Amino acid sequence: MRSTVSHVSNSDRMSPADRSEQIVRVAAEHFARDGIAGASMRAIATDAGVTRALVYHYFPGKEALLNAVLRRESDLLLEATRPDPALSARANLRRALGAYLEFFEASRGGVRELYSPASTVPAVSELAEANHGVHVRWLLGYTEAQDSPRARLALGGWLAFVEYTARQSVDGGNVARADVVDLCISTLEGALGTSLTDLQPINQKASSE
Q1: Distance (Å, whole) CA 131 – CA 80
Q2: Integer angstrom CA distances of residue 39 from 33, 57, 117, 200
């Protein structure tokens, strides 16, 4: 018996929002395991403990369900990488990069599409652009970089470097995660032309102003 079956025994008493979320969770496992083409709406419905018709009621097709899975993954990733005001810029970067690498390593099949700039899935470009904007704003905040076209270009290039580095290190498996994080941080400092070592935590900067 698959593990997904165990979390649906009370599905009849679920609210529509909870049932939709449950279907998305189960679908994420199927897309990660079987890929986009291999995932079956019938199998997803079976593991979610609902009828296929009900899955189609919430999600009119596989693409709509995949988009919901990717949006959920995107939201979870943003929450995991959100800056902590109590941490320094370097500590925030270590925390965010560690979380990003964990998410990337855990993603498989269709869910990996979220991290692919060349993805053909329509929702990916929209999600990637939105996440890019959020991360650039956060980086400008806690690195104290001046908000300029040059800084935004540097940060955009750095985010692409992080995605490439994550893919190569996870798929190749030849570089320790701590070394990958150090490489990404030193590359960001080079791109911005500044050291992040002496920057204060966000909340300390606010209290001193």
Answers
A1: 12
A2: 8, 18, 22, 47
Residue-wise pLDDT tens digits, 13-50: 788 899 999 999 999 999 888 888 889 999 999 999 99
CA–CA dist 177, 200 (Å, integer): 25
pTM over 0.70: yes
Name the pLDDT band for 51 (thresholds 50, 70, 90): very high
Q: H-type helices in 82-121, by residue range? A: 89-106
| Residue 66 · residue 175 · CB < 8 Å | no
Structure tokens at 103: 């998410």
Q: Phi and psi dihedrals of 15, rounded to 5?
A: -75, 160
User: Which tokens in the block code for residue 112?
Assistant: 């990996």
Tokens of 52: 């296929």
- In this structure, are residues 110 and 87 in contact, taking their beta carbons and an 8 Å threshold? no
Which contacts (CB < 8 Å, 24+ apart) does range 53-59 have?
54/19, 55/23, 58/16, 58/19, 58/20, 58/23, 59/23
Rounded to whole angstroms, how far apart are CA atoms 19 and 97? 32
Longest Cα–Cα distance in the chain: 59
